[in-house]
Write a structure and sequence with these properties.
The protein is an alpha/beta fold. Helix content is 46%, strand content 16%. It has a seven-stranded mixed β-sheet with strand order 3-2-1-4-5-7-6, sandwiched between helices. The longest helix is centred in the last third of the chain and has 20 residues. The radius of gyration is 18 Å and the shape is globular.
């Protein structure tokens, strides 16, 4: 059944990391949206290209201050507006446990901001700033790439879309290639991707590192976990699963 799904992300690559869920929903006639707190002009252009590959209807770029994400009223209002405009059945966002330990800047205050915005979007908060938009409570929340997943989503039908979407993120791949080229020893680089040092650019190096990490994660959630899925996106659904019968 088609749904309205919204990703509330901090960085642009998160849209591709949960791109399987967004693409599957779009294929089924649903509406997929993304909201990104921090993205340079270059990254915004590349994320829009990736969104087109995944069938994402619209990407909101919040333009928040890098290194300055906090609980200020303007930021709460911005995310409430996105939630009320898109009226999602499901919100996907970063995992609270993983975000606390992840040393990407802004992840910890962003987690508090996201949860506050989700809560406030369903109340009478900020109605004077957006009188045309009614409150919208969100019943279902999924955490992406969680430390403790409790469900998985097959990528078999949308793996090529995810790969093409990741290909669009040239700036992120360039950063990753440079980072891992400096961080890993020659032996580690060779083990990760034979011929790593001979690749023509930092972008190519970063893309192969990302491809290896993606395959490792999705195989671990899929086939390695004795799943019926070969490659699977991991999620943690908040709260109990509500069913009228047990799933096979």
């Amino acid at each position: 059944m088609s749904k309205r799904i919204l990703l509330l992300g901090v960085y642009g690559m998160e849209m591709v990391e949960c791109g399987g869920a967004l693409a599957i929903n779009a294929r089924q006639g649903g509406f997929s949206f993304a909201s990104i707190m921090l993205a340079s002009d270059t990254m915004q252009s590349e994320v829009r290209q990736a969104a087109a590959e995944l069938g994402v209807e619209k990407v909101y770029f919040n333009g928040f201050e890098r290194g300055g994400v906090d609980l200020r009223r303007d930021y709460k209002l911005a995310l409430c507006r996105v939630i009320r405009e898109t009226r999602p059945d499901i919100i996907i966002t970063q995992d609270p446990e993983h975000s606390f330990e992840d040393l990407d800047p802004d992840r910890r205050p962003a987690m508090l901001l996201i949860m506050e915005a989700i809560a406030l979007a369903g109340r009478d908060f900020g109605l004077e700033a957006m009188p045309e938009l009614a409150p919208h409570p969100v019943a279902t929340l999924y955490y992406m790439s969680p430390s403790r997943p409790n469900c998985s989503l097959s990528l078999a039908e949308v793996w090529p879309q995810k790969e093409k979407a990741m290909d669009c993120l040239a700036a992120q791949m360039t950063f990753s290639g440079r980072h891992f080229g400096e961080r890993l020893s020659p032996a580690e680089r060779q083990a990760l991707y034979p011929g790593f040092d001979q690749l023509a650019s930092d972008q190519a190096k970063g893309r192969e590192v990302q491809r290896a990490m993606d395959k490792a994660l999705y195989l671990h959630t899929g086939l390695v976990s004795h799943s019926r899925f070969a490659l699977a996106e991991p999620y943690r659904r908040q709260g109990l699963f509500e069913m009228t019968e047990l799933l096979a």
